[in-house]
Design goal:
The complex is a heterodimer of chains A (about 300) and B (about 325). Helix content of chain A is about 80%, strand content about 0%. Chain A has 15 helices and no strands. In chain B, helix 2 runs antiparallel to helix 14. Chain B contains 14 helices and two strands. In chain B, strand 1 and strand 2 form a beta hairpin. The longest helix of chain B has about 30 residues, at about 85-115. Chain B is an all-alpha fold. The chains are: A mainly alpha (about 300), B mainly alpha (about 325). The interface between A and B is large, with 124 and 128 residues.
Chain lengths: ~300, ~325
């Protein structure tokens, strides 16, 4: 609610001249600033409260939560919840599994997607546009329609309940979107650059690795950050193609933690923190690229 | 055939693009190097194998009765006929529509509101944007557990309500059939608003400031500026947000599964959760496929319009 209520205040701020003269107008600008910060500040606090709650809960002791209640102020500080989630709850293994899936998947799908995008954007491929849209359409399909057949397919291939099955399906499902985004980006690279390389005797592979890929770096960085969070955060594919507890990625392991440590909120909260940490790190490190990536796909 | 298309296309495209100017004498070569063909075929094969081929099977399986062990048995439209009388399906359908309207509508409104509020570059705005955006990077599973702690009978939400003198409204939010669905929407929104905000921020940045200058000269009020400049200028972003939201809504699974598994008594059941439990818990794979087809049909319009727009932009 507060968002819509305070929205006009920005417009008020917009009126303020870039360098306010000391005049009656500056009082208005000051007012606008105060209103802006209280509105936006309140909103941010509202958004950050759940994160603060989970961080605090994760560092409380079980006895503290049991005696004072989950919603009370903390009376203790311990990292025991983290240890329990990490060691006894199997989160360590699960985090390793998640990284074992996410990292190769991101690298492989971006490699494949960049190759296709390169060919489709830089050469006069027959059915260029149709191929591009076909690939994009695969990513737009609701995954539900694929779950059962993929489940059976991985059984037939003998990779059911293995991380390979998860990597395979994640690549197949994601690649279309990455091709689409990279194609748009590579299309904008001027043809003269490539022609110069051709004159120097470069073949397609050299043009791809030495010319286009380095120029596409910003888009690749953005997609890397984005794809990593998507794949790392996935739950649906994981619980469809995996069965054994010890192969589950961190999202699925978080669910079993919830079942295993019912009402031990310090352990569950600690588990959530562990599960969220890698993507938060990626976000903080690649914030600019990450946000750019979201826009690359959508607003062109 | 392939050569013909390529040649025809070139006649219409003026400037040559690199790569095909090398071979041939006077006329430029039409041949795409075989290596380049492989560049496309390899990824296409991966996608075909894991997406297109399974998708076709999915449609076929929706016409069968299958327990996953014995061979699928073809029953035509039997599964779809069963849906007509399946009350859980009706609930799931209704909840999905509610989810689309509430989760979709509110995340668009709140996202736009947040973008309008935080569009200006001024001191501190980066922090506010980051605060709203941070949940976007969490998995929906982690989001769900965070909010489950908030929703507990002795959790922060009930505690705060009692503190505000609203003690009579405290609730077991997730365990009550009347509130479970809404209680699940809140975390989903909490995570989505920042994402929609980013899309709108980019859209707002693309509006030419001269339009506002001109409107101000003409004495347009702030509301008129919003109504006659901002909204029309955001039309293409709106279309994107709308498609993203609809597709996300129909795919929504994690947060519901982690919080309620669709319960209590199917009160927060979405088509996606119902499809999953039908297929992988009740092992009714044929009926589950038919439910997946329903999800596909609901998404189809969005997919098609997205592709049409992409088609126009592809060049």
């Amino acid at each position: 609610m507060s968002v819509t209520d305070t929205a006009p205040d920005t417009a008020a701020g917009q009126d303020a001249p870039p360098a306010p003269r000391r005049s009656p107008r500056s009082a208005r600008a000051l007012w606008g600033t105060v209103a802006f910060h209280s509105g936006a500040g309140l909103l941010s606090v509202l958004w950050l409260v759940p994160i603060a709650v989970v961080l605090i809960t994760a560092t409380r002791s079980f006895d503290d939560i049991a005696s004072h209640g989950l919603g009370s102020m903390p009376h203790s500080f311990t990292l025991g919840g983290f240890r329990q989630a990490w060691v006894d709850g199997g989160q360590q293994q699960a985090l390793v599994n998640s990284l074992l899936v996410s990292i190769p998947t991101v690298l492989l799908s971006l490699l494949l997607a960049s190759m296709a995008a390169f060919a489709l954007s830089r050469y006069d491929m027959p059915f260029r546009r149709a191929l591009l849209l076909l690939m994009l359409s695969g990513n737009l399909l609701p995954p539900q329609i694929l779950l059962i057949p993929v489940d059976k397919l991985s059984e037939k291939l003998g990779i059911y309940d293995s991380l390979y099955a998860l990597i395979g399906v994640q690549i197949g499902f994601g690649v279309g979107f990455y091709v689409f985004v990279l194609h748009g980006f590579m299309r904008a690279i001027p043809p003269e650059i490539q022609q110069a390389a051709v004159i120097d005797g470069a073949g397609p592979w050299q043009i791809y690795t030495r010319v286009i890929m380095p120029l596409a770096r910003p888009a690749l960085a953005a997609l890397t950050a984005l794809a990593f969070t998507w794949i790392f955060n996935d739950l649906l594919w994981a619980i469809t193609v995996l069965r054994s507890e010890e192969k589950m990625p961190i999202t699925a392991s978080l669910l079993s933690l919830q079942g295993q440590y019912v009402s031990q909120w310090n352990v569950i909260a600690a588990g959530s923190v562990i599960a969220a940490a890698p993507t938060v790190i990626v976000f903080l490190r690649f914030q600019r690229h990450f946000v750019a990536g979201l826009n690359l796909g959508a607003v062109k | 055939m392939a050569v013909l298309t390529a040649a025809g296309r070139r006649a219409t495209e003026g400037a040559g693009r690199g790569g095909r100017t090398t071979r041939g004498g006077g006329r430029r070569a039409t041949r795409v190097p075989p290596a380049v063909l492989a560049f496309v075929l390899l990824p296409l094969l991966a996608e075909g194998f894991f997406v297109f081929w399974p998708a076709l099977q999915g449609f076929y399986l929706s016409l069968t009765k299958w327990d996953g062990v014995s061979a699928p048995q073809f029953i035509g439209l039997g599964n779809y006929r069963e849906m007509i009388h399946d009350t859980v399906f009706h609930t799931a359908m209704l909840d999905t529509v509610l989810w689309l309207a509430l989760f979709g509508g509110l995340s668009a409104l709140l996202g736009l509101g947040a973008a309008l509020l935080l569009q200006q570059e001024r001191r501190g705005v980066g922090f506010y944007r980051a605060a709203l955006f941070l949940p976007v990077v969490f998995s929906l599973t982690a989001t769900a557990l965070v909010w489950q702690a908030m929703y507990q009978p002795d959790g922060l939400i009930n505690k705060t309500m009692s503190g505000l003198g609203l003690g009579s409204l405290t609730h077991a939010w997730l365990a009550d059939q009347d509130t479970a669905l809404y209680a699940v929407i809140v975390p989903a929104l909490w995570r989505q608003v920042g994402y929609v905000m980013v899309l709108y921020l980019a859209g707002l940045k693309g509006i030419d400031p001269a339009l506002y200058e001109a409107a101000k000269v003409d004495g347009a009020s702030r509301w008129q500026q919003f109504r006659h400049i901002t909204l029309p200028q955001l039309r293409s972003v709106n279309a994107v947000v709308l498609s993203v939201i609809i597709i996300d809504s129909l795919r929504s699974f994690d947060v519901v599964w982690a919080l309620t598994h669709g319960g209590p008594y199917h009160s927060s059941e979405l088509l996606s959760t119902y499809m999953y439990s039908t297929a992988f818990q009740s092992l009714r794979l044929g009926y589950g496929s038919a439910l997946a087809v329903v999800i596909f049909v609901l998404a189809f319009g969005v997919i098609a319009s997205y592709l049409v727009r992409a088609f126009k932009e592809a060049d």
